[in-house]
Amino acid sequence: MTAVTTQPPRMDDACSTTADASSTRRWVALAAVLLATFMGLLDASVVTVSVPSIQQDLHASFGEVQFVSAGYTLAYAVGLVTGGRLGDRYGRRRMFLVGVVLFVLASVACAAAPSASVLIATRVAQGLAAAVMLPQVLSIVQHAFTGPARATALGLYGATIGVATIAGQIVGGALLSWNPLDLGWRSAFVVNVPIGAVALVVASRTVPESRGARARLDLPGAGLLALALVALLLPPVLDQGWPTVAAGLAAAVVLLTVFVRVERRQGNPLIPMRLLTQRSVLRGLLTVLAFYAGNAGFFLLLAYHLQSGLGRSPLSSGLIFAPLGIAFAVASLTGRRFGALGTGTILMAIGLAGVLVVVPTVPQGAQVTWLLPVLTLVGAGQGLVAAPLIGTVLAGVDPADAGAASGVLLTATQTANAAGVALIGGLFARALGNAPGSPGVSFTTYTHATALTTAAALALTLATGLLVRNR
Question: Where is the Major facilitator superfamily (MFS) profile domain (predicted)?
C-alpha cells in the first residue's frame, strides 16, 4: 500500500481565503445598507407621485399635502446630525438597525392614518426614524471601504439615489393603478415593510460595528440646530406669505449664529467646527443646497404637470420619469470617466432649457414624446453630479468625524429638498392662481406655471455649475 500524505494549506492561501470572505461580506453589507437607503428615498418619491390621490382621498388642502412631503424631509433634516452623532457614540450598526425598525413601524402608522393631520404626524415620526437610520450608511461606507473601492461604493450610493427617486414614481403609479387589497395610496407605505425586513436581516448579519468618539451628546447644540432648521423651513411650507418666510429666515440666522458660538465652546460639539473650515466641505455643502433644492422642486412640479396638466394617470406619470431615473443610475456608475461635475451641470441645464421650450410650445397630446429626451438629459446630468459631489464633501474628513460629516451632508441634502418642495411648490401654486390639483385649471395655466418654476430650477442648476467650476 502506498502512503498518501496530505499537504496542509499554505498560510498565504488561508489568508487569501479569509480576505476574499471579508471582501464579500462587506459588499453584501453595502447591499443591505443601500437597500435601506433605497427604502428611505423611495418613500419620499412614492409620496410625491401619490400626493394628488392623498389630497383627494383625505380631503386635504394643498398646504396639508405639501406638509405630508415636506414634514418628512423637515423632520429628517432636523434629526440627521444628531442621528450621526448617536451612531458615533452608541455604534453605527446598532443605530442603523434601530432606525430600520422605527422606520418600518412609522410606515405602518402612515398607512393606517385616517386623516391628513394624523398622516402628517406619522410622516414626521417616519422622518425622525430616517434620521437615525440613514446617516449611518455613509459612516459605514467610510469605515468599510478605502481607495478605489470607496469610490465604487459611493458611486453605487449615488446610483441608489437615482434609482430610488424614479422607482418611487413608477412603483407609486403602479400601486395606485393596481390598488392591491383596495389600499389606494396607503400601499405606498405598506411596501416599506418587506423592504425593511430584508435590510434588517441582512445588515444584522453582515454590517460590522464601528464607533467614533464616545463623548456625551451635545443636547444644547442639537436643540439650537433643530430650532434653526424649523424656523428656516416651516414658514415656506405653511405658505403664509413672504413676510412670514423672511421672519423665519431672520430667526434662523440668529439661531445659527448662537449655535456656532455654543459649538465653539463645547468640548465635544455636535458639529466639529473644523469640518466647516475645510474648503472642500464648505463649498460642497453650498453645492449640495443648490443641486438638491432644484431637483426636489422640479420633480414636484413635473408630477403635477404630468398628472393634472396633461391628464396622465399616476402609473403613466411614473413611467415618464423612468428614462430620467435610468440615465441617473447609469451616469452615477460611469461618471468618473467624463469629468463628472462640470459635464453634469451642463447636461442638466440643457435638459431643463429643453423643458422650458417644450412645455409652452408643444401641443398637449405630443408633449410627452418631446419631454422624454430632454428629461433623459436632466437625469444623466444629475447622475454625473450626485456621486462625485458626495465624495467632494467627505474628502479628507477624519474617520472620527465620519458620523458628524455624514449628518451634516445629509442635513444639507434634506434641507435643500424641503426648501425646494416648499419654495418651488409655493411659486407653482401662485403661478396657477389656485391649488395644484384643483378642478377647472386650464392646460394653458399649467404650462405657464410649469415653465416659470422650471426656470427657477434652471437658475439653481446654473448656480450649481458656478460652484463646481470654482471649487
Answer: 29-471
Q: Give Dmax (Cα) for the chain.
A: 98
Amino acid at 428: F
Cell of 187: 400601499
351, three cell numbers: 435638459
Q: What is the CA radius of gyration of the chain?
A: 23
Nearest residue to 446 via CA among 432, 435, 434: 432
pLDDT score recorded for residue 2: 46
- What sections of 207-265 are H helices per DSSP? 219-238, 242-265
Question: CATH: 1.20.1250.20, 1.10.540.10, 1.10.287.110, 1.20.1080.10. Which one for 26-218+266-469?
Answer: 1.20.1250.20
| Cell representation of residue 391 | 465624495
C-alpha cell at 199: 435590510
What pLDDT does residue 355 have? 94
Q: What is the DSSP string of 94-140?
A: HHHHHHHHHHHHHHHHHHT--SHHHHHHHHHHHHHHHHHHTHHHHHH
Task: Give the list of residues 6+ apart from residue 92 with CB closer than 8 angstroms, or none.
Answer: 136, 139, 140, 143, 209, 210, 211, 403
Query: What's the half-sphere exposure (Cβ side, CA atoms, 13 Å) at 471?
Result: 23
Measuring CA to CA, which residue among 167, 208, 435 is closest to residue 299?
167
Is there a contact between 431 and 301 (Cβ–Cβ < 8 Å)?
Answer: no
Domain ranges of the chain: 26-218+266-469, 219-265
pLDDT along the chain (471 residues), means of 10: 50 51 83 92 76 83 77 80 84 94 96 92 94 88 82 80 74 79 87 94 91 72 84 72 80 90 78 76 85 87 85 80 82 65 90 94 91 93 82 70 72 79 80 72 88 93 85 58
Set of cell numbers at residue 57: 382621498
All 3 cell numbers of residue 108?
A: 405602518
Q: Give the span between the Cα atoms of 306 and 2, in whole angstroms.
A: 81
Of 284, 342, 308, 301, the C-alpha closest to 454 is: 301
